[in-house]
Amino acid sequence: MATFWMLFFIFYFELLLKTGHCTETSGQVLSITPNTQEQVEVLRNVSTQYQTGLWKPASPHNIKELTQVHLYVPANSSETVRNLLQRHGITHEVMLSNADEIIEMQMRNESGDPRSGSTFYQRYHNLEDIYEWINRTAHENPTTVKAILIGSSYQKRPLYALKLSLNNKPNKKAMWIDCGIHAREWISPAFCLIFVQYSLSFYKLNSDITQILDNMDIYVLPVMNPDGYKYTWTKDRMWRKNRSPTNGTSCIGVDLNRNFDANWCTKGASPDPCSEIYCGAFPESEPESQAVANFLRSNKDIIQIYLTIHSYSQMLLIPYSCTMDEADNHSELYEMVKQAAENIRRYYRNVYTYGAGAKTIYLAPGGSDDWAHNLGIKYSFTFELQDRGRYGFLLPPSYIQGASNEALIALKTIALKVIEKTQPAAGSPQDV
């Protein structure tokens, strides 16, 4: 009889799972638009006092009336959050009903071998795989690729930048690209890997990348925040900051994109170590931001273009984000991102918003792009890759190539325009 009842309960439980009449077992991503200031305050409370993850905007302080909010709600908080929203008459839409399943799927990585073919670049890779890829890429291209150790993270993980130098032209200028400053933005390091592979594979085959590499060396930092990135693979997929502790609190991490000396820790950043936009104890307090800043300072005379890759929201941003003031070359930068957005739309039918960061999104002081611009790297840009929120930080691997193609055409458009403006032409005509 005991065996009979055991089999009955197993059968009944499986039936519940199949029909959905049981407790939710997956986190969800909700899209919510507050209509009143009271609802704004409720959402700010939900995103800070409950176990949730605010995807958009980055900080509760930026939640505003009639502005869309994207909120990750773990399964164990789902009922509480839903009841609270209902009690205050706040409607919501489920953007992702199976976020945890998507996370699990994206972490499956059957092979870490870059020689496994093009499929390597259609998957997300953990930190160990990326380090292995860096070493292998430098080893297999000894005359054109050099791995440069620019520093280390708080947890002593190396910060390697790859230098791509495809010819020996004297007095070449350079471009800097960094990826993965925010840990949960996995599409960003994925793009850096694809960009390096594309550059090495299509030099002398594609006229655009050939012209760019004939005129510029390119430095690529695939993961600027290795501690945080590692943490998203092992503990918390939604982690944003680095992993340095702050004395006097149990809260961990600094937002590296609020840690540069560009109107540091003014409106749009937070002095609270528990905040997702914590600015740190002082500018460049973090070894990761300090390493990048030191390298750029040492090479500011040759680096013409600074490009930092983020996600999500499909935007091409120019300085400033730290102030509502316009950059001295605002019109020039604006025309570049406008043309880049038009090319993306022309070739890939996808819409990218463009403009100065503060006016396009919100104030975000302490950003690397503003700092680089103030350093003297006048062509400074932030790309926010796919998508607009359907998957957000959980962009499926099947989207990696498309998102990278869009970023690549924007990068080409801007780099070719900079070369045209600042250097004698070399190579083939534009072929975007």
From TrEMBL:
Q: List the InterPro entries hit by this protein, alphabetically.
A: CARBOXYPEPT_ZN_1, CARBOXYPEPT_ZN_2, CPB2, M14A-like_propep, M14A_act_pep, Peptidase_M14
Instruction: Tell me the keywords, alphabetical order.
Output: Carboxypeptidase, Disulfide bond, Hydrolase, Metal-binding, Metalloprotease, Protease, Signal, Zinc
Q: Gene Ontology terms, cellular component aspect?
A: extracellular space
Positions of the Peptidase M14 domain: 123-418
Q: Active site annotated at which positions?
A: E384 (proton donor/acceptor)
Q: What are its GO biological-process terms?
A: fibrinolysis; proteolysis
Identify which cofactors the protein needs according to its UniProt entry.
Zn(2+)
PROSITE patterns assigned = CARBOXYPEPT_ZN_1, CARBOXYPEPT_ZN_2, PEPTIDASE_M14
Q: Which GO terms describe its molecular function?
A: metallocarboxypeptidase activity; zinc ion binding
Superkingdom assignment: Eukaryota
Q: Which family does it belong to?
A: Belongs to the peptidase M14 family.
Q: Which PANTHER family match?
A: CARBOXYPEPTIDASE B2, PROTEASE FAMILY M14 CARBOXYPEPTIDASE A,B
UniProt-recorded name of the protein = Carboxypeptidase B2 (plasma)
Native species of this protein?
Cyprinodon variegatus (Sheepshead minnow)
What does the organism's lineage look like at the top? Eukaryota, Metazoa, Chordata, Craniata, Vertebrata
